[in-house]
């Protein structure tokens, strides 16, 4: 894969993303200066001006110096710490969460090296095996890790059977369990997630299928889990299940708004850079601008971008 930054059409961007067009001129003037970022289309900055300490709660780092897991199905090119810092400059975010990708299985060295390079504004999510020692968990905790991920879509290093025992292992550290799972499969595992001693956060809108969206049994299941107070959702990867596609991802809007209405105190935003599942890279500025449509209220966006990440990931 080459570091192409193919730019989808931006025609009608300001007219089609609700809640943004009216402030486009003001926002563009305040954020002048294009920044090209590898693995991201376009170079314009977002119209939405994020508050100080805004957090991107889902991105990955790739480095060919670290070997891929033999079971991995995704093999993106390098997406480095300096390149991600360019994305931060473009979007205006400061805090961020480095998520261990499926490419490296349970070898967390690339993610931990990234945390060391980024410093105190970063947190990490690891992928671990049930036989991991308490000492290793403690070292990861000191390095900034705050959760463990189970990628049950790009399957390989983790399985559903590992969730409960590992959840018990990490509970003493105050960590959470992060789940990437297709929505219909969440329905069948809902009782498991309700029983865990740790918070649970679902990747990418909990992968609710379209066009059913908020009318699907999967959304009803996740919506019920939200009521338990221990379940969170990442507003990330709008392209994963959209049938309409960019730049508006209009079919994801009702889903995003329904989640935010149900539990604004347990929503976080994520870029999903470098978008490893996508051959045609999306425009990260457009993706961030969608948040203004999903959460028109400034106080709610502040909660999603600053307060909720501070609580969930322990940003001081």
Short description:
This protein is of the alpha/beta class.
**Average pLDDT:** 91
Helix-strand makeup class? alpha/beta
CATH class: Alpha Beta
Corresponding CATH superfamily: Metal-dependent hydrolases
In angstroms, what separates the terminal alpha carbons?
Answer: 38 Å
CATH architecture: Alpha-Beta Barrel
> How many β strands by DSSP?
8
Report the sheet-strand fraction.
5-15%
Q: What's the main sheet like?
A: 8 strands, parallel
CATH topology: TIM Barrel
Query: How many domains, as an integer?
Result: 1
Work out the radius of gyration. 18 Å
Order of helices and strands: HHEHEHEHEHEHEHEHEHH
Q: How many helical stretches? A: 11
> Which regions are unreliable across 5 or more consecutive residues at pLDDT < 50?
1-30
List keywords for this structure.
316 residues, alpha/beta, TIM Barrel, 8-stranded parallel β-sheet
């Amino acid at each position: 894969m080459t570091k192409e930054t193919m730019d989808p059409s931006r025609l009608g961007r300001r007219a089609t993303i609700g809640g943004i067009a009216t402030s486009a001129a003001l926002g563009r003037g305040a954020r002048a200066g294009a920044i090209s970022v590898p693995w991201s289309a376009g170079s314009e900055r977002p119209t939405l001006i994020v508050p100080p300490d805004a957090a991107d709660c889902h991105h990955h780092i790739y480095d060919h110096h670290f070997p891929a897991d033999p079971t991995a199905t995704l093999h993106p090119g390098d997406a480095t710490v300096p390149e991600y810092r360019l994305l931060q400059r473009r979007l205006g975010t400061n805090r961020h969460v480095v998520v261990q990708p499926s490419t490296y299985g349970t070898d967390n060295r690339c993610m931990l090296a990234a945390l060391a390079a980024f410093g105190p504004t970063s947190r990490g999510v690891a992928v671990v095996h049930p036989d991991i020692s308490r000492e290793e968990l403690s070292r990861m905790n000191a390095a900034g890790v705050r959760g463990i991920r189970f990628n049950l879509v790009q399957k390989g290093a983790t399985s559903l059977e590992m969730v409960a025992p590992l959840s018990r292992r990490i509970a003493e550290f105050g960590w959470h369990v992060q789940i990437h799972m297709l929505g219909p499969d969440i329905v069948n595992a809902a009782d498991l997630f309700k029983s865990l001693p740790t918070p649970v956060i679902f990747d990418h809108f909990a992968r609710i299928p379209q066009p059913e969206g908020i009318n699907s049994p999967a959304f009803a299941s996740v919506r019920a889990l939200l009521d338990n107070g221990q379940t969170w959702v990442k507003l990330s990867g709008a392209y994963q299940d959209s049938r309409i596609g960019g730049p508006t991802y209009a079919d994801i809007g009702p889903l995003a708004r329904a989640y935010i209405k149900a539990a604004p105190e347990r929503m976080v935003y994520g870029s999903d850079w470098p978008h490893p599942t996508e051959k045609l890279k999306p425009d990260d500025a457009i993706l961030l601008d969608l948040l203004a449509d999903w959460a028109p209220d400034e106080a709610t966006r502040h909660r999603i971008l600053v307060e909720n990440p501070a609580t969930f990931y322990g940003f001081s």
